[in-house]
Specification:
- There is one protein chain.
- The chain is built from no helices and four strands.
- The chain is mostly beta strands.
- It has one domain.
- It has a four-stranded antiparallel beta sheet with strand order 1-2-3-4, with no helix packed on it.
Length: 51
């Protein structure tokens, strides 16, 4: 999945990000790799469905 972040609190996140995704046990996990201060970082976003 690829999407473009148009605006963010952190300017470094305003760009195209390629994310992988996994859905397991009612939780969606999105993962993206980018850089912060010229160092590699991994961003992870979790969405959990409320039971």
């Amino acid at each position: 999945m690829t999407h473009k972040v148009e605006a963010s609190i952190r300017a470094s996140e305003s760009k195209s990000l390629e994310r992988s995704y996994v859905f397991k046990d009612c939780t969606l996990q999105l993962t993206a790799h980018t850089t912060l201060n010229e160092k590699p970082v991994t961003l992870v976003l979790l969405w959990k469905r409320q039971a």
